[in-house]
Design brief:
Chains A, B: InterPro entries: AceGlu_kinase-like_sf, ACT-like_dom_sf, ACT_Aspartokinase, ACT_dom, AKii-LysC-BS, Asp/Glu/Uridylate_kinase, Asp_kin_monofn, Asp_kinase. Chains A, B: Catalyzes the phosphorylation of the beta-carboxyl group of aspartic acid with ATP to yield 4-phospho-L-aspartate, which is involved in the branched biosynthetic pathway leading to the biosynthesis of amino acids lysine, threonine, isoleucine and methionine. Chains A, B: Pfam families: AA_kinase (PF00696), ACT_9 (PF22468). The structure is a homodimer of 421-residue chains. The first copy, chain A, has 421 residues and is α/β, with parallel strands linked by helices. Helices cover 33% and strands 25% of the residues of chain A. In chain A, α1 packs across α4, α7 (198-206) packs antiparallel against α8 (214-223) and α12 packs across α13 (394-404). The interface between A and B is large, with 39 and 39 residues.
């Protein structure tokens, strides 16, 4: 008998009909002889509606009370889901984050899981019950207050439960068939990836792939949880996100997938004196604004001037604050000027096979050159190559590279509407 | 420094604006130098909407899950209320039933409070915080499950908190100015009662007065909690419901108030053999249907026939089941027939002063006789006289008696719309 953890997002439980459909799916898994633990999000737009209510009451809601408020959303969906399963003749019990032993730190709105003590869940499983757990929420042992985990919280809840209960697999239900080699809306011949390592998945997620949250993948990786990302609309196999053991030989394609990202801007600090410590000085100023700097590139200095340029990318929304901070300290740092460019696109090529294959960069440069796409920045990791292009070239670049690295499928993928969080 | 418990019902917190208004009221009480604990119901129709959702999922929702579902309603209102207070610069913290130590038995949907251990509330009060508690809900220590208290649950929560914390008064906010000598919609010259004993209040509530739930009054009486029923729309003094100590002399009017009730039906068992044990036999059959029998009257038997009639009243909705049960056992009991009358009205005259005053019944009979209103049944307690009349005479009876017992005010009362639960 296997233990399977399943996660259903808000769009999968948006109304009574959807809840009954999900209940049926859970019962099927149970009927196939598995123990089942389910993490469920709040129904449809409930969380946004509650946030809205809070802002009608006060522009700056107290974080503790906001968590108390938001945590009511999953109570509703989980109780309804448990009822629906019960009405099909199977035993089901719902548990809040605190009843499920989801212990977090005290950071309201973005709490991190510090321990999972699923005593009551085990009892319920031993009694033959299907277990439904509120996603997104936990509680802090010191303050005894309810907390929420922030964006992607329900995915993290599911993975944490799978780890704590030693589940065989953690199924993440979504409205797409799995992880694709590239967004099928951009590259119609994108292929569903059968298996991907969590390391690759992390790189893809960090590079803009939207299906899984980085935090949940990180947790799965750290605790050796296998994820199965699949559609809640059909019974197709989805994508397995696996954790090969150290030294384990997994046959891996050179390139597993491509991700693109249009949400970043580029800032270039022009004419920086090429002396030690200048980069450190600049990024200390940037760090003070809490900006999430992504790629950093420093040009070789022109020997004649003794000056260099430093470029970096960051979320568009954070650019203004950083520009302001740098301007304020221009005299002290001694650079000549600042350039701001929000018309860039980022593309990442990810594949664990890169480790043992040379020539990937060369092939990438060649392919983009043939397509007359100019590369503005490059950065690499062991299993990833990222490039920055003009924003309006990035989709073309993805199509060109998807073909060049033999990722194209024989047929076009079926694309669903929505994003299914 | 006084400790005041305040209860606000769903109509007082129906939207963001109402919540801010209630928050202001709470802050005023705090600013006047009091410690404040608030019990709050779910917003407006939330509870009904959640019930509706449950019934869309399954016609017979599992009681445990239904309580889990319904308990989310107060989480929303209490968190919003705490936020609103916080935004006014006062410290406030919200607590669920289980966080507040509201321990109940395990009867989902109609749980009874067995203990209140408000450790966290005391801590919060000691730290200078205003305490907001979810009404209507508790938890069971054995099953560790969330429970709800059923109808009037938030009133009961408030009273139980007042008792456990030794509050000076428990203020029940509603949309009327207090308890009136009679429903002002029927008797425009009804007067607001300044002080009433809990004993009288219980009789009035049992006789159909709608402002307070019997259960909450019973709890207040048992634990010596003083209630103050008042309007959330103005600052007028409302009605104090007090608990005079044994032997304490309180000057009491002969009649404190009148209540009417049109929700009952009368069943008459005709031609019952007048031998010992027959009444017991009949009410054993009635009891099996769980009917809530109210008044019972047995006529003196006609010596010639050796037969008597037994009449009783009960909620209209329960009449059919009782008639069926009695019919099934007609042969065994040996009565001649059954009469069912759902056009009756009940009126109760309540006053602790009746104990020491004779002649109240005589005055009542006289007044109704002069008004040509026929009395069909009579039952009395130490501090109450109830009569049954035709349904369409009961309001006339109330007006006649209101005048006869000098309850009429000089001016007509202001009547608000709604009933404000």
């Amino acid at each position: 008998m296997s233990l399977i953890v399943q996660k259903f997002g808000g769009s999968s439980v948006a109304d009574a009909e959807s809840i009954k459909r999900v209940a049926k799916r859970i019962v099927e898994t149970r009927r196939a002889g598995n123990d089942v633990v389910v993490a469920v999000s709040a129904m449809g737009d409930t969380t946004d509606e509650l946030l809205d209510l809070a802002h009608q009451v006060t522009p700056l809601p107290e974080p503790r009370e906001l968590d108390m408020l938001l945590s009511s959303g999953e109570r509703i969906s989980m109780a309804l889901l448990a009822m629906a399963i019960k009405s099909m003749g199977y035993d089901a019990r719902s548990f809040t984050g605190s009843q499920a032993g989801m212990i977090t730190d005290a950071q309201h709105g973005a709490a991190r899981i510090v321990d999972v003590t699923p005593v009551r869940l085990r009892e319920a499983l031993d009694e033959g019950s299907i277990v439904i757990v509120a996603g997104f929420q936990g509680f802090n042992r010191d303050t005894r207050d309810i907390t929420t985990l922030g964006r992607g919280g329900s995915d993290t809840t599911a993975v944490a439960l799978a780890a704590a209960l030693g589940a065989d697999v953690c199924e993440i239900y979504t409205d797409v068939d799995g992880i694709f080699t590239m967004d099928p809306r951009v590259v119609p011949r994108a292929r569903k990836i059968q298996t991907i390592t969590s390391e690759e998945m992390l790189e893809l997620a960090a590079a803009g792939a939207k299906v899984l949250y980085i935090r949940a993948v990180e947790y799965a990786r750290r605790h050796g949880v296998t994820l199965h990302v699949r559609s809640s609309f059909n019974n197709n196999e989805g994508t397995l996100v696996i954790n090969p053991k150290e030294g384990e030989q997994v046959e891996q394609p050179i390139v597993t997938g491509i991700a693109t990202d249009l949400s970043e801007a580029k800032i270039t600090v022009v004419g920086v004196p090429d002396v030690p410590g200048k980069a450190a000085q600049i990024f200390k100023i940037v760090a003070k604004t809490n900006a999430n700097v992504d790629m950093i590139v420093q040009n070789v200095s022109a020997a004649a001037t003794g000056l260099t340029d430093i470029s970096f990318t960051l979320p568009k929304s954070e650019a203004q604050a950083v520009l302001k901070a740098l301007q304020a300290d221009q005299g002290e740092v001694g650079f000549l000027g600042l350039q701001h460019d929000d018309q860039i696109g980022k593309l990442a090529l990810v594949g664990a096979g890169m480790r043992t294959n040379t020539g990937v960069s060369a092939k990438l440069f060649e392919a983009l050159h043939l397509a007359s796409i100019n590369i503005e920045m490059i950065s690499t990791s062991e299993i990833r190559i990222s490039v920055v292009t003009r924003a309006d070239s990035v989709n073309d670049a993805a199509r060109v590279l998807h073909a060049a690295f033999d990722l194209d499928a024989d047929e076009e993928a079926i694309v669903y509407a929505g994003t299914g969080r």
